[in-house]
């Protein structure tokens, strides 16, 4: 027993990690298109834009951001055509970016950075400003999303910015709360084949906080329309009124939305008083593993919440891999961590460390592994207690009814042991257009033998095998799968990843 325990406690520990501080410094934008030098070959059929976004500026004047997620959004565009590649990048001209630039200091708070009162105000004015409602950031640096065929860049506040993907110019700022009663939405919506988009966002009212499922129709009736016609189709009350869970994404099958209420909690009282207490938003988020993780399943056509109460031991997930229905069950695959404290570790001062300090930071973070959960949809009072209700012979995931009527879910690992050596996997992507919501075999992600992804991994979830690409000193972004035309093979295509090194920037295409 002891050796097993020791192995568990030390697995994945690494030493002498290379310093990645140069990857976490402010960069210049490249607004004029530049031609890339192409090495190797691009398939002739590959044509279009690869759009990426991330933080690219970490200070204004003497003010510095604290957290990796706080940096100003830098939009990247790779245009690929007939084997040639051009690149350009522009800082998103958000109101936040413009206000910070004009004042040459941080005037709007971000996730891990509290904007300090204007030093030009007198002491009384500075004190009173702590009680003003804070401006919400529109620094939408997390993801590109699509509604009604238009492209937006999104974070998790109530704001999104519509962008022209050809010029990378912002064309409109959109406020979710002007359309529906939500205070924000995730940066990871799901899409039906007809373009209908689903997302989730919280609302905070006198009756407590709710998790809302949002549907945005695909039709664009008027020119210049944004998210008109958006609807809340279901509201799920938070288990704790003042402490809703934080979530970054959710699952979707053909007929159901799966929401995971995890014990990573947002303490609303702490968040509301953060300005007075002189703390950033992030200080209101806490990992509370005394609670279990709960799955909620909602019929996405009727908006009805299913009665099944599905629980598992505490874990945290940021990205779902895929979900599908089979034999009366929802099967949901997620990248999971047993320890939910990783958000606080991703402070810039931690990421910029070197030597033993950097090793210690890396070894303190939980690794992420792909896991499958099976949720039987039609559970009745007559179902036997203590027996596994999952009929799926191909999965060892179980769902056992308890005396109190709850369904206790235990997961199946979707990976071979080798993945532990790769530091686990995150940023999962699939052949979304053809396999989202369907039974599938492959996903692609980044391996984490460092605090940022340092390999690209293809996982076969049926045979539980890995295919790995890695070069020392190269750090790839989330792999994007592009299917080859005319093939129905699930993995017939390429993955695209923007790979950075301390002194180069390149785009990789892997077949
Ligand atoms: Fe994400």
Automatic annotation (TrEMBL):
Does the UniProt entry include the keyword Iron? yes
Extract the GO molecular function terms from the UniProt entry.
beta,beta-carotene-9',10'-cleaving oxygenase activity; beta-carotene 15,15'-dioxygenase activity; carotenoid dioxygenase activity; metal ion binding
GO cellular component terms? mitochondrion
- Please share the entry's free-text remark on the cofactor: Binds 1 Fe(2+) ion per subunit.
**InterPro entries for this protein:** Carotenoid_Oase
- Which GO terms fall under biological process for this protein? carotene catabolic process; retinal metabolic process
As its record notes, the protein acts as a catalyst of: all-trans-beta-carotene + O2 = beta-ionone + all-trans-10'-apo-beta-carotenal; lutein + O2 = (3R,6R)-hydroxy-alpha-ionone + (3R)-3-hydroxy-10'-apo-beta-carotenal; all-trans-10'-apo-beta-carotenal + O2 = beta-ionone + 4,9-dimethyldodeca-2,4,6,8,10-pentaenedial; 5-cis-lycopene + O2 = 5-cis-10'-apo-lycopenal + (3E,5E)-6,10-dimethylundeca-3,5,9-trien-2-one
Chief location of this protein? Answer: mitochondrion
Localization (cell): Mitochondrion
- Sequence positions that bind Fe cation: 188, 248, 319
Q: Indicate yes or no for the key word Metal-binding.
A: yes
Q: Identify the EC number(s).
A: 1.13.11.71
Cofactors needed by this protein, per the record, are: Fe(2+)
**Top-level taxon of origin:** Eukaryota
Keywords noted in UniProt: Dioxygenase, Iron, Lipid metabolism, Metal-binding, Mitochondrion, Oxidoreductase
Q: What family, per the record?
A: Belongs to the carotenoid oxygenase family.
- Give the function comment from the record: Broad specificity mitochondrial dioxygenase that mediates the asymmetric oxidative cleavage of carotenoids. Cleaves carotenes (pure hydrocarbon carotenoids) such as all-trans-beta-carotene and lycopene as well as xanthophylls (oxygenated carotenoids) such as zeaxanthin, lutein and beta-cryptoxanthin at both the 9,10 and the 9',10' carbon-carbon double bond. Through its function in carotenoids metabolism regulates oxidative stress and the production of important signaling molecules.
Name under which the protein is recorded: Carotenoid-cleaving dioxygenase, mitochondrial
């Amino acid at each position: 027993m002891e050796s097993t325990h020791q192995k568990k406690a030390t697995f994945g520990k690494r030493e002498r990690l290379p310093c990645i501080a140069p990857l976490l410094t402010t960069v210049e934008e490249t607004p004029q298109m530049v031609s890339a030098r192409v090495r190797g070959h691009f398939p002739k059929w590959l044509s279009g834009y690869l759009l990426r976004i991330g933080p690219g500026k970490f200070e204004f004047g003497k003010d510095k951001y604290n957290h990796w997620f706080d940096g100003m959004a830098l939009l990247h565009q790779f245009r690929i055509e007939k084997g040639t590649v051009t690149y350009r990048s522009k800082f998103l001209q958000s109101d936040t970016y413009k206000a910070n630039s004009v004042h040459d200091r941080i005037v709007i708070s971000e996730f891990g950075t509290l904007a300090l009162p204007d030093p030009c105000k007198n002491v009384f004015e500075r004190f009173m400003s702590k009680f003003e409602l804070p401006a919400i950031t529109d620094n939408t640096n997390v993801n590109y999303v699509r509604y009604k065929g238009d492209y937006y860049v999104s974070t998790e506040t109530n704001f999104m910015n519509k962008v022209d993907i050809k010029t990378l110019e912002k064309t409109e700022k959109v406020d979710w709360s002007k359309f529906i009663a939500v205070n924000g939405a995730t940066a990871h919506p799901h899409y039906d084949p007809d373009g209908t988009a689903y997302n989730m966002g919280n609302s905070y009212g006198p009756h407590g906080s709710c998790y809302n499922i949002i549907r945005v129709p695909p039709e664009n009736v008027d020119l210049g329309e944004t998210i008109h016609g958006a609807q809340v189709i279901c509201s799920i009350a938070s288990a704790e009124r003042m402490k809703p869970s934080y979530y970054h994404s959710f699952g979707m099958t053909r007929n159901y939305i799966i929401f995971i209420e995890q014990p990573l909690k947002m303490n609303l009282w702490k968040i509301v008083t953060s300005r007075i207490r002189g703390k950033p938003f992030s200080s209101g988020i806490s990992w509370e593993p005394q609670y279990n993780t709960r799955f909620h399943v909602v019929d996405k056509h009727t908006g009805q919440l299913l009665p099944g109460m599905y629980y598992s031991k505490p874990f945290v997930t940021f990205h779902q891999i895929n979900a599908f229905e089979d034999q009366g069950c929802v099967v949901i695959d997620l990248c999971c961590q047993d320890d939910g404290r990783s958000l606080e570790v991703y402070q810039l001062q931690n990421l910029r460390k070197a030597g033993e300090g950097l090793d210690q930071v890396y070894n303190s973070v939980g690794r992420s592994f792909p896991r499958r959960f099976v949720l039987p949809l039609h559970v009745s009072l007559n179902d036997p207690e203590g027996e596994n209700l999952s009929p799926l012979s191909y999965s060892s995931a179980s769902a056992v009814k308890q005396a109190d009527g709850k369904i206790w879910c235990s997961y199946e690992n979707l990976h071979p042991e080798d993945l532990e050596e790769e530091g686990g996997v995150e940023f999962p992507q699939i052949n979304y257009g053809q396999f989202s919501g369907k039974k599938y075999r492959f996903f692609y992600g980044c391996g984490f033998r460092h605090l940022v992804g340092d390999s690209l991994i293809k996982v076969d979830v049926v045979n539980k095998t890995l295919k790995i690409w890695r070069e020392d000193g190269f750090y790839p972004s989330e792999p994007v799968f592009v299917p080859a035309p005319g093939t129905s093979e699930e993995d017939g295509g390429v993955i695209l990843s923007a790979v950075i090194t301390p002194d180069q920037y390149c785009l990789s295409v892997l077949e």
